[in-house]
Design brief:
Layout (H helix, E strand, L loop, with lengths): L1 H25 L9 E4 L4 E13 L3 E7 L8 E3 L4 E12 L6 E19 L10 E21 L2 E20 L2 E21 L4 E10 L3 E8 L6 E8 L2 E11 L6 E4 L1
C-alpha cells in the first residue's frame, strides 16, 4: 500500500510539472518598456554676447545754406566702418512636435559709424566742415520667428532699434552740434546652432533703418553772418557672431520610440 501511494504522488507531481512547462510555453513573452530618447527643444531663456562690424548703407549728405535762404546744393561724404560688441537677453518657445520657434530678444551694444568732409564750395577752403556720427551705443527689441532643423535654427527677426545720431557743422570761429536718440525699425535674420543642451553659437545680420535729417545754424566770424546746414544720415548694416547660454537646457523634451 505504501509503495502504491508513493507511486501515485510521483505521477501527480510529474504531470503538474509538465503542465506548468506547457502553460509557460503557451504564454506570450512580456514586451519590454518603451525607450525614452531625448529630443532637443529650443524652449527656454538665454543670455549671450557677440562681436562684429557695422557700416553705413549710404553716404551722409550735408546741405549748407545761408540763414533764411533755401538749400542751394549738397555734398556727400563717406563714413567709416565700426567694430560692434554687446550682449543679448531673450526667450524662445518651441511647441512640442513643431519645428517652429517663437522668441523675443533684447540687445544692447556699442557701435560708432562716423565721417566728415569740408564744403567744396565755401571759402576760405577747408574752413566749413560737416560731420556725422551714429553711436556710441544702440539697442534693439525684436521678435524672432525660426524654423528648427533639430539643433540648427534658421530665423528671421525684426522690431524697434534705438540709436544715438549726432550731426556737427563747423564754420570759421564756431561749430554747432545736434544730438538725438532715434527710435526706428530694424530687420534681419541669422543661423544658430546648439552644440550642447545649453550652449549655442550664431551668425546674424541686422539692418537699422535710419533716414534721419538734422540741421542747425552757427554764427561765423566771417562777415558776422550765420552758417547753416541740414544733413541726411543713412541706415546702418550690422553683421555679428555670438555665443548664447540657455538656462534649463539640460531638461530636454522626451519622445517615445
Amino acid at each position: 500500500m505504501k509503495k502504491i501511494l508513493m507511486a501515485t504522488v510521483a505521477t501527480v507531481m510529474s504531470i503538474g510539472v509538465a503542465g506548468a512547462a506547457d502553460l509557460s510555453a503557451r504564454m506570450p513573452m512580456k514586451a519590454p518598456p518603451p525607450v525614452m530618447a531625448p529630443v532637443f527643444s529650443w524652449t527656454g531663456c538665454y543670455i549671450g554676447g557677440y562681436v562684429g562690424g557695422a557700416w553705413s548703407g549710404g553716404d551722409s549728405t550735408a546741405y549748407p545754406y545761408t540763414f533764411g535762404a533755401a538749400n542751394q546744393y549738397g555734398y556727400a561724404y563717406n563714413t567709416d566702418s565700426s567694430f560692434i560688441g554687446g550682449g543679448t537677453l531673450g526667450c524662445n518657445w518651441q511647441p512640442i512636435g513643431s519645428p517652429f520657434v517663437l522668441g523675443l530678444e533684447g540687445e544692447l551694444g556699442y557701435l560708432s559709424v562716423e565721417g566728415s568732409a569740408y564744403d567744396p564750395l565755401r571759402t576760405p577752403a577747408g574752413s566749413y566742415w560737416a560731420s556725422s556720427k551714429v553711436g556710441d551705443w544702440y539697442g534693439m527689441i525684436t521678435g524672432r520667428l525660426g524654423y528648427s532643423f533639430g539643433q540648427a535654427l534658421l530665423y528671421a527677426k525684426g522690431g524697434v532699434a534705438f540709436v544715438g545720431v549726432e550731426s556737427t557743422y563747423t564754420v570759421p570761429g564756431a561749430s554747432v552740434s545736434i544730438s538725438d536718440t532715434i527710435a526706428t525699425w530694424t530687420v534681419g535674420g541669422g543661423l544658430e546652432w546648439a552644440f550642447d543642451m545649453n550652449w549655442s553659437v550664431k551668425a546674424e545680420y541686422m539692418y537699422i533703418g535710419l533716414d534721419e535729417t538734422q540741421g542747425a545754424c552757427a554764427s561765423t566770424t566771417v562777415g558776422g553772418g550765420f552758417g547753416c546746414f541740414t544733413q541726411d544720415v543713412g541706415g546702418i548694416h550690422t553683421a555679428k557672431v555670438g555665443l548664447n547660454y540657455r538656462f534649463g537646457g539640460g531638461a530636454p523634451v522626451m519622445a517615445r520610440y
